[in-house]
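Morning run. Coffee first, then this:
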Amino acid sequence: NDNPTDPSIQTLQLINPFQALFKQGRGSLVFTNHWFLFDQIMYTPSLGETLFDTRTCKSIIYNDNNIIYHYGNQRSMPFSSYRGNEFQGGFSDHLPVVLIFKLKNAKNALK
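And here it is:
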């Protein structure tokens, strides 16, 4: 459970395209009314150099309206399945993260 700026992540020799989102105040989960970004997709520099075009790499924290809670003090937070032992009907207490990139030999990139 580490954010992109935590020393445990910073010491890894990996590319983390989600670091910029975290520095903008974005996150994938809320705890004690603060956003955290424990959900990250990282890759090695060699993978980026050989497999895909890093210039087209796009990181997304998926926050569709259907998976966000809209009421009370948990407003604008992920709509979790449970609150304590009570089933809320939500999806998860974490928002999904997505990494979109264009393969070096692909003709069309996703937008």
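The mean pLDDT is 87. Good start to the day.
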